[in-house]
Amino acid sequence: MVMYGGGEAMGLADLYVSRAPLYFGGVEAEPERADLLVLGAPYDATSSYRPGSRFAPRAIREAAANIEFYSLRAGIDLEDYKIADLGDVVLPVSPQDATRRLEVVVTDLIDRYPEKLMAVLGGEHSITLGVFKALAKRVKEPCLLVADAHFDLRSEYMEEQYSHASVMRRIAETFGSDRIFYIGVRAFAKEELEFARNKQIEYITSSAARLLGTREVISRVNRWIKRIGCENLYVSIDMDVYDPAYAPGVANPEPEGLEPWMLLDIVFRVVKEADVELKLFDVVETSPPYDCGGVTSVLAAKTLLEVFAAYIARRMS
Fold first, then answer.
1. How many independent structural domains does the chain possess?
2. Which residues are annotated as a binding site?
3. What is the tens place of the pLDDT at every residue in 109-154?
4. What dihedral do alpha carbons 200, 206, 210, 211 form, nearest 10°?
5. What average pLDDT does range 191-214 have in this prediction?
6. Residue 93 carries which DSSP code?
7. Could you identify which of 27, 42, 222, 225 might form a hypothetical disulfide with 54, taking C-beta atoms 3.0 to 4.6 angstroms apart as the criterion?
8. What domain range includes position 224?
């Protein structure tokens, strides 16, 4: 059980969250006084190729403790802001049960800290379903911006409907396919491509993103946000959206990915400038056992920090 500030447990989240052995960035802050929140979701029960993303929250925390917190994009030093690490959600093996627990825990945390931005560290991509469901229970018109090499739109994968390869299919079925926009996709099965086209899901492949340039990609994302009436944006960043040259330690690497500068510029400007609220985002699919020199964990930490910086810059503008 988690005790915040030495007090008694205050909600359902306290029953299922375990304090991490180290804190994001190496600094502990009281959640009530923090500007930003971090929550770990160490889960990889449906990983099909290179498991190990359950170790990612710890690895990303350690990486964050050893990189600089100044954002050149924002002109902001995040060391001037308090980041509270809430620890890790203790998740059951069953993906359906894990989804339900994440929904319960994140709903409780949204209710407890309604004005704070929370980052969720995966874990495999299946964790997004439970977190997005929690958001949808508490806000109006949520939508999902996904940076990913894959569609994750299979009806099922290896007889599992709640697989990391099916998570976006479940979200599309529950909340509407128009609520999803992809950046960086380049690897998918025929059934996924047909589903995306039939349901008119918007996506920009990695090669198209390079041809269009960051300005046009950002413009298309902003037009989508306005067209569907999105009031609350959830950003989900699968680390395999980056090219394996920059992020080798992922569960399912795919060649021809995006360069870090491009993806970070796009996400930063959307978060900072789009006419939409941001309460939650996740960074998923880092697999430390396959990470050469820990560079993927460092990039994951940097990615999280740039989203935080964009959020702070937006509030200051």
1. 1
2. 125, 148, 150, 152, 238, 240
3. 999 999 999 999 999 999 999 999 999 999 999 999 999 999 999 9
4. -40
5. 97
6. S
7. 42
8. 4-316
